[in-house]
Specification:
The chain has helices at about 5-20, 25-40, and strands at about 45, 60-65, 70-80, 85, 95-100, 105, 115-125. The longest helix has 17 residues, at about 5-20. The chain folds into two domains: about 1-40; about 45-125, no CATH class. It has two helices and seven strands.
């Protein structure tokens, strides 16, 4: 079994035990190992991004209609719009449109060719091992 599969299995076991009221897991170590294993795999297609926890943060690769591409760090999923939110609370995926009053508004649910789209994701890197 790969290092990634081992880390994911261990994380799933940990979550199952917590859901069943069992304790005893060293959460920080489990999460660090899972993050390190995922980071080793690098960028992954956005379709594989975790969407179960709206507070889980990850890095996104975004592509604008004009071809501009960039990395947006520390993003989280917003299930109410099936979109992604940046660390400052603004949506990072979608397009600007005019509302019924003519105001320019951002629509995070727009997934058309005129929208900024997330194409890939990667987990946040593990924190430094050495404490300051």
């Amino acid at each position: 079994m790969s290092k990634l599969a081992d880390a994911l299995r261990q994380t799933a076991d940990c979550l199952e035990d917590v859901a069943n009221g069992k304790g005893g897991w060293a959460w920080e170590e489990v999460l660090q190992e899972a993050r390190a294993a995922l980071a080793a795999d690098g960028w992954q297609p956005i379709e594989t991004a975790p969407r179960i926890d709206r507070w889980a943060e990850l890095d996104l690769w975004l592509v604008a209609p004009n071809g501009r591409q960039w990395r947006e760090a520390n993003c989280r999923y917003d299930p109410s719009n099936d979109s992604w939110i940046g660390p400052d609370g603004r949506w990072v995926q979608g397009a600007y449109k005019r509302n019924e009053w003519g105001d320019k508004c951002f629509d995070p649910s727009d997934k058309s060719e005129k929208a900024i789209r997330a194409t890939h994701w990667q987990p946040l890197p593990a924190p430094p091992k050495e404490k300051p």
